[in-house]
Amino acid sequence: MKIQKLLLTMVLLLMPVSPVFAADVVDSGHTAWIITATALVMMMTPAGLALFYSGMSRYKNLLNTFAMTFVSYCLASVIWVMWGYTLAFGTDQGGVIGSFEYLFLNGIDVNSVFGAIPTYVFVLFQLTFAGITVALVLGSVVDRMKFSSWIVFAALWLTFIYCPIAHWVWGGGWMGEMGALDFAGGNVVHINAGVAGLVLALVLGKRKGYGRDAMFPSSVTLTALGAALLWFGWFGFNAGSQLAADGVAGSAFLVTNTSAAMGALAWMFAEWFFTKRPTVLGIASGVVAGLVAITPGAGFVNLPASLIIGLAAGLLGYFSVSTLKLKMGYDDSLDAFGVHGLCGIWGALATGLFASPAISGASGLFYGNPKQVWIQFVSIVATIAFSAVGTLMVVLVTKFVTGGLRVELEQEVEGLDSALHGERAFEIG
Description:
The chain is mostly helical. The protein contains 16 helices and four strands. It has a single domain (26-413), classed as Ammonium transporter AmtB like domains (Ammonium transporter fold).
């Protein structure tokens, strides 16, 4: 009997291990794709978003907008590897925040694996999301916020607002456990940034001359180029969020492109109908609206749904910018709330409606799961509430630390490129 057990043990030890029971192993194909996707998303902030926002700002503030975008990504890059990653993806603490086990990426090395990719690659991929999210916020406050105040605000906001919400959804927190669907950042990125931008804009107040003086974009050409780069980079943003080179990533790629195109067409035709002029700025804005709306559901919805999501996003974006903002009277400089906040809310709700089990197993209302709409609604309300209240607290702390948020009136009139940076983007005259 002992000999039989010994032989059986030897046979089991010599048998090849099934991949199902094996430890996580790096897959070179998946890794290559996520490294590429990371580079694409990185390009979205200091290239795509910087051009998109700077072109919409006034000529005298173009370089200041570039600088704020650049420094946002730089701050995120440092904060994320020091303490941001562990707060978002460390071991769950009561569903609210991660532990400090990965502080300064402690415990992670070249042999660490996350799923089928090196952990370092996952860290970098998530870093790019943090970088673009905080940069999106500044779209609401360009032309009037102190550069020093923005730096303090961005650092605090990343730590105390972005990281907790990222943990709630993707890091093992309560929102993900509840079953909320957010494939690539509807709640974490767009609703969060849009609401934060609105709060910051309301505290700062309107730009001098807002509603009275013409405030023309410095370069629609730069904005259109920025939108094209955002569109290109968004394929890494959405398809990369599958963390694998597979069919779901391919589907996310497809619906992302389709929703962006539908958003652009919807905005263009709405503008054409109401103003008789289809502008390049409108087309570019429609692209971004469609991209924002598809983000939470990119890995859950099918092609027909992406057409509807993009169409509605283009119309919602257009009316939020052309009508809602004017009636409400707030000065959201570059429409961060109108495009990212509102279209992000639509996209999160639409995911609850259109999530198809044929894509990645999740079902929405139209596939027999009405509960998912309620879950999405709860996640949206919680994100709005936390972002609004938390951002207000961060704003008050920033105001105290820096002695004020807003530039001097003379600097605002002169232009922040010259007054704060001693530079000019264009030679006039």
